[in-house]
Structure formats: C-alpha cells, structure tokens
Design goal:
By secondary structure, the protein is mostly beta strands. The protein has strands at about 1-5, 5-15, 15-25, 30, 35, 40-45. It starts with a strand and ends with a strand.
C-alpha cells in the first residue's frame, strides 16, 4: 500500500488495484447534509 497526498494505492491482487482519495475539504453531501469527516472516493482497476 502506498499513501501520498491523501491518495491510497493498494494492490489487492495480481489483477486488482484499489485507488482511494480522502477528500477532507468537502463539507456537505449534495450541498445539504454536513459531513465534517469529509468524503472517501474509491476506484477499482481490473487488469
């Protein structure tokens, strides 16, 4: 696992990589609901 600038890169298996971004600046979900802890965005890359 590699962490740099709020981005986590995790090689789960030979063919699967998970990317995560921890967004601590976004304070509202859909501009309505407060989320003080921020948002985590995820992406899965299959080879």
């Amino acid at each position: 696992m590699e962490i740099k600038n709020n981005i986590v890169i995790d090689k789960v298996s030979k063919d699967l990589i998970v990317l995560r971004y921890n967004d601590t600046l976004t304070r509202y979900f859909k501009a309505l609901w407060q989320i003080p802890e921020g948002v985590m965005y995820n992406a899965h890359l299959f080879n």
